[in-house]
Amino acid sequence: MCSACETKVTAESLDEFSARYLEILNHGALSLMISIGHRTGLFKALRSAGPCTSAQLARASRLNERYVREWLGAMTTGKIVEIEDDHFVLAEAVSQLFANAEEASNIAYLSQYIGMLGEVETRVVECFYKGGGVPYSAYSRFHDVMAEDSGQNIVAALLDHILPLVPGLTLALQNGISVLDIGCGRGRALHLLAEKFPDSRFTGCDLSEEAVAYARDHANRSELRNLRFEARDLTAFDCEAPEAAYDLVTAFDAIHDQARPDNVLVGIRRSLKPEGIFLMQDIRAASTIAENRDHPIGTLLYTISCMHCMTTSLAQGGMGLGAMWGEQKALEFLKSAGFANVEVRTLEHDIQNNYYLAWQAA
Asked: What is the DSSP letter of 164?
């Protein structure tokens, strides 16, 4: 080991790390229990019920009291719930962030990622030895969680913040244009756009037949005649994309997941009309670990990448870029795909993503 890499281990540093490791274990466990509280509606029930016993909360939430009581134990020791005389109440800040009736203000859903990724831990461990990847089919709740994530990250900000990043886009949508969304999932963003802009035509595509069936059913029930969905593999999109078919192509947190993001980007450029534009939301990070060492949510994003984004791409024989491919590599891929002009924008409320505007025309 080089002298610059040597670290003197002292009793104090061991004590400090031991204490931090206990925090890590507690916080990991707390994330799972927050996820359960979100999925069962316990946070909202506790907010509505006010100070209450475990039995009262179980009745209010229609859940088993023994499980509710143990959950309250984790929440209390985790400083999420306060207790006085065997009555429990949500801390005020927690009530605002975990029990808000408005979806756009409720962030408890993020804890679901920990449990969802835990389902595939053993299969990911096998990949460390053998290579390859874990397919989408192994994630039983992926589209449930991503639909909630889309509601927060994309849908809630779409009309007032994301669309205005492209000058004149809202007016163009009102007048009527053709739009393609790559990696649409259950189509929440497109459902909103199709309803808001009835004179425009929208197409969503995703690898998952399950997600597309869900999106298509919702569109049919809502009688959105200007919206259609396709289940398709975009690995060869560079050759299969329709030429000059769309005025706008969007991809929300989807390009880095693709088996061949290079081919997908070439296909997107091919599918755009001469004056068309590509709007890509993707993770805000650098392309090297060293540059990301102080990233505020870097640990979470690298974990999600390792246990989902990267491995699902590798499962398809893909490039496995991962969520943390970074701004430098994203710009490199966009330029290689033939986009002559690329701008990177950010939104004040969104610490997680960059927004890339890419087009061909001078």
From this structure: G
Rounded Cα–Cα distance for residues 19 and 136 (Å): 37
In the sheet that holds 272-283, the strands lie side by side as 227-231, 201-206, 178-182, 246-252, 272-283, 353-359, 341-345
- Taking only the tens place, the pLDDT of each residue in 312-348 is 999 999 999 999 999 999 999 999 999 999 999 999 9
Tokens coding 38: 């979100």
Q: Which CATH architecture has domain 121-359?
A: 3-Layer(aba) Sandwich (3.40)
Q: Which CATH number fits domain 10-101: 1.10.10.10, 3.40.50.300, 3.30.565.10, 3.40.50.150?
A: 1.10.10.10
Beta bridge partners of 278: 249, 358
Both tokens of residue 115?
A: 């449990």
> What are the residues whose beta carbons fall under 8 Å from the beta carbon of 243, sequence distance 6 or more?
270, 271
Domain ranges of the chain: 10-101, 121-359
Write the CB contacts of 353 (distance below 8 Å, at least 6 apart in sequence).
153, 253, 281, 282, 283, 284, 346, 347
C-alpha closest to that of 37 among 104, 103, 111: 111
CB neighbours of residue 9 within 10 Å: 9
- The pTM of this model reads 0.91
Q: Give me the helix-helix angle, 142-150 and 209-221, nearest 10°.
A: 50
E strand or H helix that includes residue 238: helix 237-240
The two structure tokens encoding residue 117: 């990724």
Which amino acid makes up residue 324? M
150-159, pLDDT tens digit by residue?
888 899 999 9
